[in-house]
Amino acid sequence: MTAAARILVFDSGVGGLSILQEIRRQYPHCCFFYASDNAAFPYGTKTEEELIERVDIVLHTLQQTTQADIIVVACNTASTVALPRIRERFSQPVIGVVPAIKPAAALSQSKVIGVLATPGTVKRKYTQQLIAQFAEDCEVISIGTSELVHLAEQKLRGETITQQQLEPIVQRLIHNSAIDTVVLACTHFPLLKKELQTALPNIKHWIDSGEAIARRVGYWLDTLNIDLGDHASNTDSTAYFTAQSPNITELQTALIRLDITNTQFINMGMNND
Fold first, then answer.
1. pTM, rounded to two decimals
2. Is the pLDDT of residue 247 over 60?
3. 30, 31, 75, 138: the active-site residue
4. Is the distance from CB of 166 to CB of 182 less than 8 angstroms?
């Protein structure tokens, strides 16, 4: 029996589950590991130096357990800050996520684009460079919000998200009728896509990184010629957390929907402040 390719999807919270969902949809034969560094959540409060060191150490600890063939850093903050260091330190391919400004600018007919992201991503120089490079001919309205992150996590735990909760957050987009394209520039936000579509019914294009990341995974699956001969032949998927929390129990239903039947706690033995 040929072993399934092993893919590690990593995030600080649970937003990366939206990326895992899309990769699994396209490549259901793979064995998936989801890892949430919830002990250090949110990453947006860390300095760049702290974040680079944290991601490096956590991923190396996870890799000792998972022996993944492909690593997906499913966090915009970690990708824009730590990806160069991580790629230097791993022999496996490391795929990151960046705000999908380029495809949004290409799709928009009105050339007015909304960007929903975390405050850190909106402020980051890298995001501004993407806008300058790929959306120079567009008006870009960026909203930095941590509230949507928390609402997405509440939804995953089974809570209902109301329009009264969403509308104040996206008010600037509601009031601009010229916007035809919105970038979901945080991996948490696709989890709220249905609710956002209700709040913003005139938006024609909703762009996130899920499909692009899944295509990149497919590229490596097709071209890397990964030797899977030494891997275990089962395809049981596992979620790893760096802190024990009641929220993990509440997430069980969402994890089971993604065929993640096992959860484990990894003690990093680090200062998580």
1. 0.86
2. yes
3. 75
4. no
